[in-house]
């Protein structure tokens, strides 16, 4: 566990030099999200064989498609495509394909949605018991389970704890001590 905390700290602080804008680069996001979910004490119970991550994107928006493609490229370059020893599979999902969304364990939101649209999507994901990953602390305030934002030039983990608990996620106190926790 100490090794995992050290790795998160290394990712947060030493890779933060790559952050030039107000967005966490995808090459930093993926290892962080993998480490974050390794602190879910219920992960092996929820996903015993494979963790299916759906990348929700809007094919009509170039930025969304670009983010999806970059996420896949970075994921494919990883040597270790596991979380806590469980293999991870990626599935690109066009926004609105509810049948495909229902088949994933975690939804990564590569979308630019209004607050209303995001709230509607999160309600669907919650009904299907699917945790969400997104960017920006504001998304966590709206109900995204785990998001990444930039604070003082460094990645900041933002966790919506009530949303996580409703979905059966049990993050360790060690992770929560490193994150900004939203308690609705």
TrEMBL record:
InterPro entries: YfiR/HmsC-like. It comes from the Bacteria. This is YfiR family protein. It comes from candidate division WOR-3 bacterium. The lineage of its organism: Bacteria, Bacteria division WOR-3.
